[in-house]
Amino acid sequence: MKSWLARGLLAVLGSGAAVAGTAPEPAPSAPADPRVVVTQSLLLADVPTLAAIYRQSPDPVSRVLAAMALERIHFNLDKADEDARLCERELFASRPGIALFCARFANGNLRLAQGEGVAAAAELDIARRFAGRVPQAELDGMRRYVEERRARPPLRLQRPEAGFDIPLEHPVHDNRGAIEVEANGGKARLTVDTGASFLAMDADTARRLGVRMLGRSGQANGFLSRGVPVEYGVLDRLGFAGVVVENAPVEVLPGHARLIGIDVLRHLGTFRLTRDRIHVYGKAEPRPACQEPMLVASDVWGNDIRVVAALPIEGTLRTTLLDSGSSFYLSGDQTALGQLHATYTHRIGLGDIGPRRHAARVNEATAEVVISGQPIRMTFGVFKDARMRWDYVLGSGALDDMDFYFDFGGRHTCMLLHDGLR
Prior knowledge:
By secondary structure, the protein is of the alpha+beta class.
């Protein structure tokens, strides 16, 4: 069945007739450019903004791009790909800049579905297809993007067919669960961090596990840390609890963070994260009742994914990151201070990525939060110095009251509440 966008796209765009004779496209940096708004909303998984654009914008191109992004956020990759390719085809002659955006968006869907190797070849084909139709500098940037990632083979994960458990350990004074992994004869404990991407570790751990460095560097930001230097590598083979991961990307950071993130875990398919284990579901195994749609943030190119939830906080829906790498129950950043009644309490020493320990200013807020239909009155910390994509984080502290359920195949995410909430 075609997506709701694909069924009506030809009528909306009229094979280019709807936009024929319009003014030239604005520059990509112009505020009115729909690509900018859609890109930002995709990074935030901002469903309300995209839905409003789709329903209310007088610009048919804005509606098309918003619809593509909505399909991606709900992790409906087949439909998102169908929409994006139809958009490229219909606008290739009349709006090549928009058509290129749609083509690269489709390639982001491909990267999420089939990995970096397949997507890289498709990216080069896009550059050839649009030669002479868009600025050469943009096409050169695409080729550099592919070249930088050429040495990174696609991640593969092998797991038992039947359902199984991955036990989690808890280091002293840390309520976050960790998996013991083995690679190249070395062992390490990696914290299960659904707020991280692939693997992250310090240089000593990377050497012990045999990480192959790629000669690329960059910077990373955390909850409080900014501009932390990163070196990129690949771990050819990693094992834990009967699971084998091949070609896992690694970020090597100063400090003590050792993490396994959602871009690895999602390849498990359907899993339930509890305080003490991850239960991975077999194909025929009954699932919990969960009808909440999955909400996935990403960039246009299919990188940097995070799973979020829309939680009513003091009566207003707030997009909230599901982050088992946070040791708190619920926390907020500096923007949340303007949304809640909060009082200043104290400073606490807080670790983050990188070597620095932060003296974080913490305000205390009390609010009603509705989780899976259950109103919960809770008091939590709001960090004045934190800047995040999302103003709220539901962390591993919540796992005493609920389990996090991720179903990437069925595209559902739920917080499964325990009986007798604290």
